[in-house]
């Protein structure tokens, strides 16, 4: 999730620091591969970019053939096609790669990324890699979804490359900065324990992120641990806590975190604990007695008799701002 925040902060020149040394996702090898396809298509450091992705997916071009092609002047792909040792399948694959790069060149950036993932076969390559290495493919899938999301809005691939370079340089410089500055703090819930902030923003409170359950884990294994982690994150706020529950993630509708419903239930129980006849203390009006209580989804109203008269008050506002407590 940090990618969107880092991009936005960098573009808007909002100061931020990373407490856990979070690097930009653009430094991950999967993202670098996609960027290399984009660079190769637009002629940015073309030969070195092709060198990175020539066998991703595998086109079975040997190191000997690659080194021989790189030793000659001109385009590496054209030089490879001139190699007499290639078989028909290798010639077909290299020719197809050349045609793909020509197509990508004139595409909008998000369409180009989509083309690389699905038509060129990069996503299948990453899936096979994850399986061979016994790595959870979901991690790679989310990386690819992130770069697809970040590419939206850039009609020219060159503009997107400039944007990415700016973000990477910005992140690298900020990782070296002194952390004792007035800035937005980016931190994972795991790293937040023991820290406190005036305001805390928890983003992405949806199932699949909070709680995050890996393929090789069962819900019972992680639900309680993730619940404790969520509690730690919430209690880092000294004054104000914001929890963001997006309806969509990567253009797909997602359900709220199951812990959100637990919070609603807790708040409902707490609100329901106020009843007629209870004595309360109001920060501004002093002592009072609850005369009426109206609880519903839209409004939670209490009618209180104070020394200065009867007041109709919104219970949610009172609790949120710590204006009342039981006498």
Description:
- With 327 residues, the protein is α+β, with helices and mostly antiparallel strands.
- The protein folds into three domains: 22-174, PCRA, domain 4; 187-264, Double Stranded RNA Binding Domain; 270-326, Hemimethylated DNA-binding domain (SH3 type barrels, Roll), CATH 2.30.30.
- The chain has 13 helices and eleven strands.
- The chain has helices at 2-12, 29-42, 46-53, 63-70, 76-81, 88-105, 109-118, 122-132, 137-151, 157-175, 219-234, 258-272, 315-320, and strands spanning 16-18, 184-186, 197-202, 237-243, 248-249, 252-253, 279-282, 286-295, 300-306, 309-314, 324-326.
- Helix 8 (122-132) runs antiparallel to helix 9.
- The chain is elongated, with a radius of gyration of 28 Å.
- The model has no long low-confidence stretch (mean pLDDT 87).
| Radius of gyration (Å) | 28 Å
CATH architecture assignment name of the largest domain: Orthogonal Bundle
Shape: elongated
Which structural class best describes the helix and strand composition? alpha+beta
Tell me the helix content: 40-55%
CATH H-level homologous superfamily name of the largest domain? PCRA, domain 4
The total tally of domains equals 3
> How many strands, what sense, and barrel or not for the largest sheet?
5 strands, antiparallel
How far apart the termini lie comes to 44 Å
Task: Report strand %.
Answer: 15-25%
The oligomeric state of the chains shown is single chain
CATH fold-level label of the largest domain: PCRA, domain 4
- CATH class categorisation of the largest domain: Mainly Alpha
What's the total helix number? 13
Order of helices and strands: HEHHHHHHHHHEEHEEEHEEEEHE
Q: In total, how many beta strands?
A: 11
Q: How do the strands of the widest beta sheet line up side by side?
A: 10-9-8-7-11
Q: Which residues sit in consecutive blocks of at least 5 with pLDDT less than 50?
A: none
Average pLDDT confidence is 87
